């Protein structure tokens, strides 16, 4: 299972959660790795550390768009298939983690310097450690995205 391992590998090299997801799937679509990593550059910490939607989630939704989407705006089937797969993925992620928001995932406001620092302190038992939690999210997210992709392909016939 290359995707989760590659996501962890990229994350361990200090790429963010979104970059790690995009980078782990990029080769499947013959995407230029440099471009893929640039695409995800500002999407960590819930959109540039605003604490909103998790970058790993955003990366997975982009991948689902690549799998199911179309470059033809009149292709209603591709649009609907994409929305269905993204909704399924988001539902599964929320079932697993309770939320898609970084602030709630880490039990702190990562948009503040204090909250960000607190999230990074591994000795703080009340706050989920940012690196450990984000890496786990990336691994689980790649697995969940793969399952959603498989189901999307099965629906297409």
Question: Key terms for this structure?
Answer:
single chain, 157 residues, 68% helix
Report on this model:
There is one protein chain. The protein has 157 residues and is an all-alpha fold. It has one domain. Helices cover 68% and strands 0% of the residues. It is built from nine helices and no strands. It has helices spanning 2-12, 17-25, 33-39, 44-47, 55-68, 76-97, 102-106, 113-120, 130-156. The model is unreliable at 122-129 (pLDDT under 50).
Rg on CA atoms, Å: 16 Å
Helix content: 55-70%
Q: Beta-strand level of the residues, as a percent range?
A: under 5%
- What is the strand tally? 0
Approximate shape = globular
Give the count of structural domains: 1
Order of helical and strand elements: HHHHHHHHH
Number of helices: 9
- Model regions low in confidence, pLDDT < 50 over at least 5 residues: 122-129
Helical/strand content category: mainly alpha
Span between N and C termini?
Answer: 24 Å
Q: What characterizes the major β-sheet?
A: none
**Average pLDDT reading:** 80
Summarize the structure.
The chain is built from 9 helices and no strands. The protein is mainly α.
Task: Outline the secondary-structure elements.
Elements: H1 2-12, H2 17-25, H3 33-39, H4 44-47, H5 55-68, H6 76-97, H7 102-106, H8 113-120, H9 130-156
């Amino acid at each position: 299972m290359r995707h989760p391992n590659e996501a962890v590998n990229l994350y361990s090299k200090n790429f963010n959660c979104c970059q790690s997801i995009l980078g782990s799937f990029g080769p499947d679509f013959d995407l230029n790795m440099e471009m893929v990593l640039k695409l995800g550059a500002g999407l960590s910490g819930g959109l540039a550390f605003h604490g909103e939607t998790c970058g790993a989630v955003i990366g997975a939704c982009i991948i689902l768009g690549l799998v199911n989407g179309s470059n033809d705006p009149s292709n209603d089937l591709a649009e609907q298939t994409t929305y269905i797969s993204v909704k399924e993925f988001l539902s599964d992620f929320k079932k697993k983690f309770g939320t898609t928001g970084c602030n709630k995932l880490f039990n702190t406001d990562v948009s503040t310097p204090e909250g960000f620092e607190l999230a990074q302190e591994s000795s703080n038992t009340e706050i989920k450690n940012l690196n450990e939690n984000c890496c786990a999210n990336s691994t689980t997210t790649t697995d969940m995205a793969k399952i959603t992709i498989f189901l999307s392909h099965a629906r297409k016939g």
